[in-house]
Amino acid sequence: MTKIKFKRILFKVSGEAMMGSSDFGHDSDAISNICNQIIQAKKRDCEICVVVGGGNIFRGISVAANGMERVSADYMGMLATCINALALQSALEKQGVETRMQSAIPMDTICEPYIKRRAARHLTRGRVVIFAAGTGNPFFTTDTAAVLRAIEMNCDAILKGTQVDGVYSDDPKKNKDATRYDKLSYRDVIKQDLKVMDQTAITLAKDNKLPIVVFSIKEQNALCDVIENKGKFTIIN
Predict the structure, then answer these.
(1) Who's near 33: CB < 8 A, 6+ residues apart?
(2) Domains of the chain and any CATH numbers
(3) pTM check: above 0.90
């Protein structure tokens, strides 16, 4: 078996990745693809935790821009991530994967509260840990939550699954002349204002020397290819 580059990872899954070709909500094929990627990576003895977004259900920033109080809008977005985490947990457990969901906002009826030591113990026992509700605070994105949890869990890297095969100088769907990058520094991302993650997340990753790998979640076995240092991706370090 090929030696893996990253032993413990945080897999950042956007809400949009869970809706597939739908306009909103969940697409069973898209969720099944995400689950299969996680299962294949686990077979290579990779320890995996996951942070899910909520953009397929609710976007706090866009709603706040339309007049709703930002704090309320952000809390609604956090609850949307909990819905996605439950959907992913259910799909994984149907395929025999042992999981634990932990929320930054306590909701004891449906999941565990976020406790660092407990989460780390779950990982060492081979469970997939799904972190929901972002950081539990308004004004922070799920990208920032992903970096924070990856640092707390001593992950080797964040692997961000997107709709494109890396980081581009512009949106490649709108600009065919956009340049694709294989490698970037944190400073490059901040200086060029590249839309990989928000600048709070990038700065936190930079300060803690946490690599960020951006790849296309659509490709078959893409997650496994990345942890084996194969395939197409952009690495930020």
Answers:
(1) 217, 218
(2) 8-236 (3.40.1160.10)
(3) yes
